[in-house]
Each structure stands twice: as C-alpha cells, then as structure tokens.
Amino acid sequence: MNEDFMNCRAVGVVRSPFKERGDAPSQGRHTDAVSIIDVFPEYQEGLDGLKAGDDLFILCWFDRSDRTVLKTRRRGSENEPLRGVFSTRSPARPNPIALTLVKLVEVTDGTLRVRGLEALDNTPVLDIKPYSEGIDTPRET
C-alpha cells in the first residue's frame, strides 16, 4: 500500500451514559446499560432490515485514546508483564478502532438503542455490521 493515511467518515455518533473514561466498563459485555447511536441522515437508509433483537458489531473510533501506546497491561493486571497492544483489547493503540458486539434494543427514525456498548458519549461510529453465527464463530482447528 502506498498511502500512509486512509479516509474514514463517521456514520453516526454515540449518546452514552458514560461521560468519562472511568465511567465506562472495560468491555461492553460488562454492562447492561443502554446507549443510543444517532445515525447521520445520509446513512439512515443503510439501517433498512435491522430489527430489535439483532446482534450487531459496532465499530467506533475511540477518539480520546492514546495513539502512542505499543505495550500495555490488561486493566487490573498491574503485576503482569507488559504485552504488545495487538495482543490486548486496550483502547490505547495506534488506530483506536473499537469493535463491540451489542444487542439491538430498538431502531427508530435513524436512532439505534443498543445494550452492551462501552463507548463514551460523543464517540464517532465508523460502521455497523450484523453478527453472523456462521461467519463470526471461530474455526475449529
């Protein structure tokens, strides 16, 4: 690849009960809190076919994360040795793209109500993809 930069556009923004880093759980599955994803008008047509009860992957840009980190420890593991950031789920990484599996509670007029999203309030949403058991479960070795 000859480009050092890629262009992405946010398709929406998170409205979350988590206002500061300390408010958010380490992973979305550690919360039952409901967050709102406001999808921008020009992308709302892409929501067609979604329904309450769907499992969705939400890809967010963790815009408040440290992008200089290459070694870290898992939260609550201060006694463990440092690990490469690509072997962790840390939000601090060169490209702070978050991937969270959520449950769609409701879809209404360009707004998704989801359960299990750890993103902070006003986090940009890069993409929304459906979970597919046939595609997203690990291969057997």
Automatic annotation (TrEMBL):
Q: Any idea which UniProt keywords this protein has?
A: S-adenosyl-L-methionine
User: What Pfam families would the database entry show?
Assistant: TrmO_N
Give the TsaA-like domain ranges. 8-140
InterPro entries listed in its UniProt record: TrmO-like_N, UPF0066_cons_site, YaeB-like, YaeB-like_sf, YaeB_N_sf
S-adenosyl-L-methionine recorded as keyword: yes
Question: What is the top-level taxon of the source organism?
Answer: Archaea
Q: Which PANTHER family match?
A: TRNA (ADENINE(37)-N6)-METHYLTRANSFERASE (PTHR12818)
The record's similarity note reads:
Belongs to the tRNA methyltransferase O family.
Name of this chain's protein: tRNA (N6-threonylcarbamoyladenosine(37)-N6)-methyltransferase TrmO
Lineage of the native species? Archaea, Methanobacteriati, Methanobacteriota, Stenosarchaea group, Methanomicrobia
